[in-house]
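Design a sequence for this backbone.
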């Protein structure tokens, strides 16, 4: 919060004012009291420490700095502590792109997993140990080259963009894929899991699916390999760019280097994509689960095929049986129809013969009674009249009625009885409307 200063000058004394005559006391001071004051605070402690150990200011500061370094080292021991390579301490700070920034800060085992807090604490620890002023105070004649390496490593790793660029080309974080011979020993999941975990750090999609184990389902395994065959990587290769001249006099050279860098990035990106796909192909070829799933799928396919063939065979057999049964039933129907037809023919023939016989009975009955002519010979006209009326009567009745009429006539020889039988039949036909009244004259009384 900003503070404001306001000038408030004391009021001007009136002219002729005098302290001896014009000053008036408004109160009195109390009497003095003796009190014991105890000195405290960091400055007093520093003073007491120097007096106790008979140190000068510079000696005390140097010893305190050493103790602080030891304290920091003790606090960070283990988590961000690792032996320093003597060759690394002799690195040229100008070759900062070639250095392992994580190793410089003692974070080799953490690498891309190192947190911002760990990087800051590692930087503080390294600075306290390798600061040029400390080395000079200790009488060391070493230059500050490694200290500059520390500063550059911290600058890169605390900048999210620069750190991602460095992590993209950090081959020390890669895990070499196992050989076919190693995988065949039964350590597929143990050997390949670290490989995919390492490659998964470049994925835009998180979390990355795990490789699983021999109990994984087919859906999980297919999802795993589909993820890697469609891998969306954020990996870039700007960190390996050739330095672009920043002077304005070489603009053509600058554009040439930029084009060259862009082409190199695209090439490396393409090569990395091909490398990853080849790696996934190798894992897929060695994955026993894929072989198991294919065997199961083949067995399931064969089972479906056999079931389909069995069903087709069953349907064919049923169709053959149905056809055979239909043919048998047709043959039986045809035989029955043939028999029925023959029987019908016989019945029809018998009925026809019976009708002929009955017709002969009717005609014989009138002939036997001399055509109703009495004792004399019947004239030709009388014979024709009677026979015509008999034919007319036969034409008006069916075979059953004809059979009844013939039965009624039987072997009757009396003309009056015969005529009476014919008269009754004609009367019935007239009543049924089959014959008109008076249409038959010779057969009525």
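Sequence:
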């Amino acid at each position: 919060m900003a503070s404001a200063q306001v000038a408030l000058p004391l009021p001007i004394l009136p002219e002729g004012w005098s302290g001896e005559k014009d000053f008036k006391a408004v109160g009195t001071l109390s009497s003095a009291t003796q009190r014991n004051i105890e000195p405290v605070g960091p400055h007093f402690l520093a003073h007491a420490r120097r007096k106790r150990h008979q140190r000068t200011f510079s000696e005390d500061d140097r010893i305190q700095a050493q103790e602080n370094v030891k304290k920091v080292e003790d606090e960070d021991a283990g988590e961000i502590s690792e032996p320093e390579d003597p060759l690394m301490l002799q690195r040229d700070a100008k070759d900062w792109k070639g250095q392992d920034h994580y190793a410089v800060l003692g974070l080799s085992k953490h690498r891309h997993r190192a947190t911002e807090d760990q990087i800051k604490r590692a930087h503080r620890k390294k600075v306290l140990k390798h600061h040029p002023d400390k080395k000079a105070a200790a009488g060391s004649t070493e230059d500050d080259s490694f200290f500059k390496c520390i500063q550059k490593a911290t600058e890169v790793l605390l900048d999210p963009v620069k750190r991602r660029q460095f992590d993209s080309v950090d081959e020390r974080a890669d895990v070499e894929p196992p050989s076919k011979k190693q995988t065949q020993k039964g350590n597929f999941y143990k050997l390949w899991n670290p490989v995919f975990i390492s490659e998964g750090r470049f994925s835009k999609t998180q979390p990355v699916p795990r490789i699983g184990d021999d109990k994984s389902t087919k859906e999980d395994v297919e999802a795993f390999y589909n993820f890697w065959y469609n891998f969306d990587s954020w990996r870039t290769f700007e960190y390996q760019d050739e330095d672009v001249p920043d002077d304005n006099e070489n603009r053509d050279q600058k554009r040439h280097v930029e084009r060259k860098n862009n082409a190199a990035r695209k090439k490396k990106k393409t090569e990395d994509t091909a490398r990853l796909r080849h790696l996934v192909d190798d894992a897929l070829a060695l994955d026993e689960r894929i072989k198991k799933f294919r065997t199961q799928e083949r067995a399931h396919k064969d089972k479906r095929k056999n079931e389909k063939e069995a069903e087709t065979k069953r349907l064919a057999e049923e169709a053959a049986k149905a056809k055979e049964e239909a043919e048998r039933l047709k043959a039986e129907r045809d035989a029955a129809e043939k028999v029925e037809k023959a029987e019908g023919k016989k019945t029809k023939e018998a009925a026809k013969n019976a009708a002929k016989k009955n017709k002969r009975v009717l005609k014989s009955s009138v002939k036997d009674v001399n055509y109703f002519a009495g004792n004399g010979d019947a004239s030709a006209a009388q014979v024709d009249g009677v026979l015509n009326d008999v034919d007319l009567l036969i034409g008006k009745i069916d075979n059953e009625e004809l059979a009844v009429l013939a039965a009624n006539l039987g072997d009757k020889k009396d003309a009056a009885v015969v005529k009476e039988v014919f008269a009754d039949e004609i009367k019935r036909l007239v009543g049924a409307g089959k014959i008109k009244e008076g249409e038959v004259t010779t057969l009525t009384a």
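The mean pLDDT is 84.
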